[in-house]
Amino acid sequence: MSRLRVAVVGATGAVGQEMVSVLESRRFPVSDLVPLASERSRGKSVTFHGEAIEVKVLGKDSFRRVDLALFSAGGSISKEMAPVAVKDGAVVVDNSSAFRMEPEVPLVVPEVNPEAIAGHRGIIANPNCSTIIMVVAITPIHRLSPIQRIVASTYQASSGAGARGMDALLRELDGEGRRSSTVPLNTKAQGSPFPHRLAGNLIPRIDVLLDNGYTREEMKMVHETRKIMGLPPIPISATCVRVPVERAHSESIQVTTASPLTLDQIRTALRAAPGVKLEDAPREDIYPMPLIVSGQDDVSVGRIRRHPDEPSTYDLWVVGDQVRKGAALNAVQIAEKLFCA
Ligand code: A2P
């Protein structure tokens, strides 16, 4: 197989750094790595297979001879620069929300809808992190009996807001803003991307509030789940909450299927499903938790229960490393399907 020139846009960020590390650990066939970031990163380097590679400042000429460009530098950079990369002949896997809902852009989770990749016209979108984690966990159930309704509540880690989010939480946990008795208890760390202090707190607002009262993050879960799973307009709703966890998103998910299933059927399907780890022995205190799932590729599923009053409704507790499967790993898996299949 020929080796590829691979650009990583946003290579100094939380997801970009993980993309570089996933390319390395999965031995993706890279001939040259081109790490790209902003002026602020001039002089920095990233390590790839033991070699320090200088980070270049992103510009219109960054994509010459690039075969694959992984973008994770925010929506406005993707909107401006992904078409430039495509014009120069690269295939773009974009981690931002810029193109996800465009009808001609495939929105892909390889365990769920790998067939959508074939229809790409240069850009393939990587879904929202909470959406990826959810659809990996519920698709095996949907394949047993079509899902008719989804209700999700998320517990999203600080690193979902990038390196700045993780850094703000760590500084708050270290005591920043609370050392002096003259500073109010709810003072957040300087430069925090969150609307409030996160340490010792929960913030039930991720991304902007929309006219319908839901946040954009919540509506991303609704619209993206329908697109990836090819669902009819069944009821789906979400409540997305930022929690003071460094890494890995947790989700309480309730699904209703067309016909009743046994819990054994569900567990057997999840055990066999690619990308899923079943951790469902709550009496032995075995269930997914962010501290255990951080750094793990698979999405962990546990606490599987049948609704006490509705035989076709089930509750699940799902945890996934959102920097990895929720972003970097999913993007590299898409690239593997494109170039290595
Ligand atoms: P930089 O580190 O130079 O600011 P995160 O989501 O973890 O905050 O990371 C965002 C990534 O996007 C970083 O690598 C950041 O680079 C990059 N980025 C942000 N703005 C730009 C820009 N205008 N041009 C290129 N890269 C950018």
Short key terms for the protein model shown above:
341 residues; alpha/beta; Rossmann fold; Dihydrodipicolinate Reductase, domain 2; 2 domains; six-stranded mixed sheet; 23% strand; binds adenosine-2'-5'-diphosphate
Give the SSE map:
Layout: E1 4-9, H1 14-25, E2 30-37, E3 45-48, E4 51-54, E5 56-57, E6 68-71, H2 75-87, E7 91-94, E8 123-125, H3 129-144, E9 147-156, H4 162-173, H5 216-229, E10 236-242, E11 249-257, H6 263-272, E12 276-278, H7 290-293, E13 299-306, E14 313-320, H8 324-339
Parallel strand pairs: 1-2, 1-6, 2-5, 6-7, 7-8, 9-10, 12-13
Antiparallel strand pairs: 3-4, 9-11, 11-14, 13-14
The protein binds adenosine-2'-5'-diphosphate.
Give a verbal description of the structure:
The protein is an alpha/beta fold and 341 residues long. The chain folds into two domains: 4-127 and 327-339, Rossmann fold; 131-322, 2-Layer Sandwich (Dihydrodipicolinate Reductase, domain 2), CATH 3.30.360.10. The protein is 28% helix and 23% strand. The protein contains eight helices and 14 strands. It has helices at 14-25, 75-87, 129-144, 162-173, 216-229, 263-272, 290-293, 324-339; strands at 4-9, 30-37, 45-48, 51-54, 56-57, 68-71, 91-94, 123-125, 147-156, 236-242, 249-257, 276-278, 299-306, 313-320. Strands 5-2-1-6-7-8 form a six-stranded parallel beta sheet, sandwiched between helices. The protein starts with a strand and ends with a helix. The mean pLDDT is 96.
